[in-house]
Recover the amino acids of this structure.
């Protein structure tokens, strides 16, 4: 039989995870036959890279990806191997390769996060995993303020010491610092943030940031990561104990929508009253500082925080002076204070400020204060009266007063877009194995 020999595939690309243990047979074979090997210096040094292979040390990720593109584009069936730490599909190189159109074969090793929790002897299906690797440290810090069990992927300059300095002394936590897991300098130490802030640490490392009172052994759930969002919000006023709340449920609903609290955010609740707005923000996963000048009110906030089983730091003092000591917030709720407080909050807020006031004469001053700090301002008047007869504990329909909600947003503050439509890249076609047609008798319901 004659005919042209089959075309070699244009290239092959495999990504091997490395965790310090010897490569599995399949991964070793791929490496032996590689023409181009790309990886971090420590991986290339630790693995049997074949003599004939060209190596590219992955320092500058973009440059390394360009090399991979060029080798793939040569169209000569080149075998390319990328070596990366842990599970390369988890905060790793697989995403960038897919973004460039590659369809790599991935052979993962154990993720550094799985290994770190194993070293600590802790379950981690309830842990929040955040990355400060090439990203803002503040989001990781806020996640650690709000959650009892967080694993932080670090980077030089955003490591255990920097994390500890940001958390100390307001946020008591235990750090389990896991250095060079699986490598020659592996070390796992448990320290308090004060100590973590002054010690030298080796890269790479993962830090488990644990609230010892709440993280061990952790809650048993049905979903990995932090608990899903709250089952409801704009809670009844009575959820914040006896006595009136400053911001009633319906007004709070709009305030929460405009604050947009979420994991990684820091929210200030200024003039916290019973803590109702701050507590609701914490239920969404945000870190919160409640600012109150009155000690009895601070005590009420603490009581409510405990009752709702969330984390809210309480800062007793008078705004605006007390705000100087706080880290910059993503969003601020101002339930009390004049225009100078609104202005001080607006000057620090990264995303939005929401002001609730009962006095119509205060709306203009609040709007001016927000605009003075370059926020786009909006204001509405809300009157929510019970439409059914009140029971003994109900709200008096005659007494319901209108509230004014004034809010300001910083333009372009949130690239992920909270309500602006996000332009979607054209979806790349993904091939999945066809599923067999279901047997109609065995389908318990259909969702057409
Ligand atoms: C880009 S992320 C890659 C994570 C990796 N895909 C994984 O599953 O472990 C890089 C970060 O992972 C963590 N890391 C990776 N290898 C590690 C190791 N051997 N020991 C401790 N931390 C490690 C460090 O926080 C490092 O800065």
């Amino acid at each position: 039989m004659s005919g042209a020999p089959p075309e070699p595939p244009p290239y092959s690309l495999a990504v091997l995870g490395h965790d310090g243990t010897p490569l599995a047979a399949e991964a070793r074979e791929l490496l032996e036959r590689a023409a181009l090997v790309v990886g971090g210096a420590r991986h290339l040094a630790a693995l049997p890279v074949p003599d004939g292979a060209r190596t590219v040390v992955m320092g500058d990720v973009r440059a390394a990806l360009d090399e991979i593109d060029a080798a793939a584009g040569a169209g000569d069936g080149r075998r390319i191997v990328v070596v990366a730490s842990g599970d390369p599909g988890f905060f790793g190189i697989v995403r960038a390769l897919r973004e460039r159109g590659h369809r790599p074969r991935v052979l993962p090793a154990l993720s550094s996060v799985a290994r770190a929790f194993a070293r600590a002897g802790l379950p981690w299906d309830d842990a929040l995993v955040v990355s400060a690797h090439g990203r803002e440290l503040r989001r990781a810090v806020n996640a650690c303020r709000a959650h009892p069990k967080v694993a932080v992927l670090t980077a030089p300059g955003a490591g255990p010491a920097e994390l500890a300095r940001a958390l100390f002394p307001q946020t008591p936590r235990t750090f389990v610092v896991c250095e060079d897991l699986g490598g020659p300098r592996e070390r796992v130490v448990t320290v308090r943030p004060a100590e973590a802030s002054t010690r030298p640490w080796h890269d790479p490392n993962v830090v488990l940031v644990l609230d010892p009172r709440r993280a061990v052994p952790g809650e048993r759930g049905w979903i990995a990561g932090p608990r899903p969002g709250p089952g409801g919000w704009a809670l009844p006023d009575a959820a914040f104990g006896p006595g009136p709340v400053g911001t009633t449920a319906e007004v709070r609903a709009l305030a929460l929508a405009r604050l947009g609290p979420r994991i990684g955010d820091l929210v200030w609740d200024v003039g916290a009253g019973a803590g109702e707005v701050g507590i609701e923000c914490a239920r969404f996963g945000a870190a919160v500082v409640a600012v109150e000048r009155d000690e009895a009110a601070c005590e009420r906030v603490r009581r409510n925080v405990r009752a709702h089983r969330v984390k809210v730091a309480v800062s007793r003092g008078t705004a605006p002076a007390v705000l100087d000591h706080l880290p910059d917030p993503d969003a601020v709720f101002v339930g009390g204070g004049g225009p100078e407080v609104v202005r001080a909050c607006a000057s620090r807020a990264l995303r939005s400020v929401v002001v609730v006031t009962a006095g119509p004469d205060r709306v203009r001053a609040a709007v001016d204060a927000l605009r003075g700090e370059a926020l786009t301002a909006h204001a509405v008047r809300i009157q929510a009266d019970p439409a059914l007869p009140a029971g003994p504990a109900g709200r008096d329909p005659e007494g319901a007063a209108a509230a004014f909600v004034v809010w300001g947003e910083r333009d372009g503050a949130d690239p992920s877009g909270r309500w602006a439509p996000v332009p979607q890249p054209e979806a790349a076609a993904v091939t999945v194995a066809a599923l067999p047609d279901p047997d109609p008798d065995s389908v318990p319901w259909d969702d057409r």
